[in-house]
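Summary for the funding panel

The consortium committed to producing paired sequence-structure records for every protein in the target list. Below we show the first two records in order, beginning with the earlier of the two.
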Amino acid sequence: MPRVVPPIDGRTSSSNLPPSIIESTAGFSAGVVATLAVHPFDILKTRLQLEIDRKSKPGDSLRVLRQIVRDEGNFKALYRGLMPNMIGNSVSWALYFLWYRNLKDIMQSYRGGERLHSMDYFVASGTSGILTAVCTNPIWVIKTRMISTGANAPGAYKSISDGIRRLYKSEGIPGFWRGLLPSLFGVSHGAIQFVAYEQLKNRRSEYKGSGVELSNWDYLTLSGMSKIFAGSVTYPYQVVRSRLQIYNARELYSGATDVVVQVWRKEGVMGFYKGIIPNIVRVLPSTCVTFLVYENTKYYLPKFWQDDVTLDD
């Protein structure tokens, strides 16, 4: 595997490219690659989250997987909703890393160039997450509704444009921001993950010594460890968000608090962790791929740009 120089506090190799372009391009690329790799697990996780009356069992993932393939045509059903998912992930990561980089630069300038503290990472990550969640929530509503049902289900959205038109017609502008509140709570997940990732990365760099490069294996390991840590703390919000974003959410729940009350009363504590197994299977490779593509793109893009500029000159 190629080796990449460990970026410290968001700094990248010098080049003629603005840092914002580098960060957003790296984030966009990471979102596209990660979504293509793990989209079927996203469908599986969402379907399990929406099973209200069934008690969670170890074999549920295989049962739902067989059911999707059997009832919805073939294995292509596992990629239903791929486009809104890809758009959502790529745009989200592009915006997130753009704001995250700029906020870290502001904080580092305020600290006089010193290494950032855990709280700095938390604030930068949390603020970036809030801005990203507000901007991209409409994409996630369409995506959740498309992957929560088969393409042949009554009332199912046929495409992104069909979903936008019908959602606006039936629920108006507020419908595009359904589930935003639990998504904002979910920002804490990203904040916790990034604090853990940045600190683990700094510790690993210190352990390997000054000037020694972090390997791709380091990035895979560190991103996986930070994701497991954050996911174990914040997973329940995803169940609440999914329940609020389905087609008939207004008929079933009056809001996020009502979802929490109903899940607790009807399904118990384990109801908040439905779909967590496929979610872990999905998010670990997704996170590892995302950060690996992000770190490599962030490092190599300026080099490729410099080479192109040199050739043109």
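The next record, for a separate protein in the list, is shown here:
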Amino acid sequence: MESFQDKGLNQPLVESFQENGLNHLPVAAEEVSSELENVLSDRRLTASSRYRKATWVESKILFKLAAPAIIVYLLNNVTSMSTQIFCGHLGNLELAASSLANNGIQLLAYGVMLGMGSAVETLCGQAYGAHKYEMLGIYVQRSTILLMVTGLPLLVIYIFSKPILILLGQSISVASAAALFVYGLIPQIFAYAANFPIQKFLQSQSIVNPSAYISAGTLVIHIFLTWFVLKLGWGLLGAALVLSLSWWIIVIGQFVYIVTTCKQTWNGFSVRAFHGLWDFLKLSTSSAVMLCLETWYFQILVLIAGNLPNPEVALDSLAICSTILSWVFMIAVGFNAAASVRVSNELGAGHPKSAAFSVVVVTLSSVVIATVFAILTMVLRHQISYAFTGGSAVADSVSDLAPLLAISLVLNGIQPVLSGVAVGCGWQTFVAYVNIGCYYVVGIPVGAVLGFKFNLGAKGIWSGMLGGTVMQTIILLWVTIRTDWNKEVEIAKNRLSKWEDEKAEPLLKE
């Protein structure tokens, strides 16, 4: 392990580390050092040389963060999908039940927990950049406590999932089977409550590879266990319980890594975790509202399409386009995580130029990749649907929707990254209001009018909702471009001072 002097860090930074009781650089601290800020401030270089060198420095850090994050989200998605595939081999009723439970009830819990866990991204990221390492463990414990409590009302929804699904128009047979699957997912609620704070805790320190390895190993175990319990005849309940167990394996694996490796940022369980929970709840709630409004937006698109005159073709074509969009979205989510980490780290470290430059690099990188997929979508617009179904009517409908899908893919290269920037800066409440206005006041009503009043069908519904996304993206772009990054550094400094309470002895040392 290299010492401060070996790294050639300046004396004030060395003293900052030593004040926190650290004699060596913690994991990934090199990425949040002043290297990028020094390059951007080096007037000995020409502007082109300065930006070229800075782009190389930032790109290396960015893709080390984004690539494993993408893999983690993809693997977690595949874990749930593999359960549905196995259930599909039990019969059509079981496939419908597992799909409804996973994409309906379970998605609600996933969105709420992931959203509330995003508060940890802001606080841990900025605290890590400011070298307040002892606070990271406190923040992750506070978040876990709040998410565990939040799991209780979600538990009630899971318990009463059958009457809820019947009330929403599902048949008794499908609702009964889906409810059985949901009962097996109850332990997963609290796995989410522990996983997302832990995941954000690690990401804020640029530690992403271990989560990818743990998710990959868990997927292998999950597939074997699911096959085994179905062979035993445990059916939907057994498959769901295995899915819950797999999420707990991920949680335990990551926590063991934290306890054994993150010595500077994890100092054991502490009573300080119970201080300031109300303010933490307000930030967590804003984060949850912001993310859930985005997650539910395109789910509503499918629900509205079910009321069209020819719903079968509309739903099939929208399902195919939504599947493609969701898989490419996983890439954008990786850049979302990278943007949040980079911006929060640099703001916490007091590097306004680096924070602003990180936003530019991560946004352009994501847009380029999204544009490539958009072009492929247009080139293969007549062939895409045949990977899912052989119907010519659906193929024609998908081809007709392809231009809208391509635009959505490009926007998905921008919007999630800007949301990541918002999380890194702590703008969750503002973005929640923007999402309400753009998505639910403009996008959905306009889509409904175009789809039903003007008889444009699925294309009209998507066009209206796409308009809401464009509006939201423009607003976030405008706000980001006009951001005073020096002021954001001061806001981050004040936020950390507010959130850092008086030091207390840990409740339990590891």
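Regarding this second record: The chain is about 80% helix and 0% strand. Confidence is low (pLDDT under 50) at residues 1-33, 502-510.
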